[in-house]
């Protein structure tokens, strides 16, 4: 029998023995009851979460942007530029609002900093223009303390804009106090044939200038400002990807109240998202303290592996509760999958923690401290994971691991005297 065959055989037998031992211990230890008690003792009720969110939402400087333009005119690209959300997630985030509009709140419906309403079907001969206008007007008629802005998007080489002008004219007449921004998009489509990269902003090519001037004249009496952008995908090969983003945010700042314009600038540099993330994490730490303390108490049991099923159930419950706080409803199996995904190499250390218990005298104390710190770091990692999802971003495993390592180190100091 070769060395590797023997090792694999040993691993398989050890795995079976651990699985059998775990199954038997689950019958002896009140795994489900401990998890249920933890949920009951430390859960933040739906009513309390709603109260917290309502209080924060009332103070948020939220901007409602009505994006009006034909399909493929760059509306979703503006969403990507202002929020940093990927193209795939932007598409998934829009939801039907009325027959001719779709809505997307960033970072979430509960705490929106930006609400985008996108017109769909504009330019379709089968769509009734007056119906689109009525639906947009109904949106604007709603009593709201939020700042609002109309954003008209026109491709630089599209001169069939009669329907868009008609909509803008009627909305302008009815709501003259709502600022209107004309955004000319897709500039690279009229670059000279030998140009393969964006020039210094703004572009100074005859074809671009001529087209932009014609569009500006068409909308001269209907818009307060005009800006040129070219937001592309990375695979398109143009750099920067969000060409004209600074001009767009500066122009929005001129048209919006100070608080809302400041928030948009903070979204670009990510500080607003960090502040919202800190708000959720401060609430989440109510769970982390309680669950970490309970984990330490359980881990102090001196029998190796005896408490692992209970600890695992406890930690899965923690992940599930944090998901609920961030608006994600998870089954226990889904919460367990997320816990496994974000924990990474910490699992190997968990086995080491249990083996320490064989050391007489101080092994259980070390294990208790480790269990508390690990539970805390798992919770912090879950907050990053759910925070990314809430913000419409794909969770970054490296960032999660970095946060877990940092929080694990600090939590070990915090819980070093727990036994």
Explained architecture:
- The chain is α/β, with parallel strands linked by helices.
- It folds into two domains: about 5-40 and about 270-415, no CATH class; about 60-270, P-loop containing nucleotide triphosphate hydrolases (Rossmann fold, 3-Layer(aba) Sandwich).
- The protein is about 60% helix and about 10% strand.
- The chain has 16 helices and nine strands.
- The chain has helices at about 5-30, 30-40, 45-60, 75-85, 85-95, 130-140, 160-175, 205-220, 245-255, 260-270, 270-300, 310-325, 330-345, 345-355, 365-390, 395-415, and strands at about 65-70, 95-100, 100-105, 110-120, 145-155, 180-185, 225-230, 230, 240-245.
- Strands 2-3-4-1-5-6-7 form a seven-stranded mixed sheet, with helices on both faces. It has a two-stranded antiparallel ribbon with strand order 8-9.
- The longest helix has 29 residues, at about 270-300.
- The chain starts with a helix and ends in a 5-residue tail after the last helix.
Q: What would a concise description of this structure say?
A:
The protein has 419 residues and is of the alpha/beta class. It contains 16 helices and 9 strands. It has 2 domains: 3-42 and 272-414, no CATH class; 62-269, 3-Layer(aba) Sandwich (Rossmann fold).
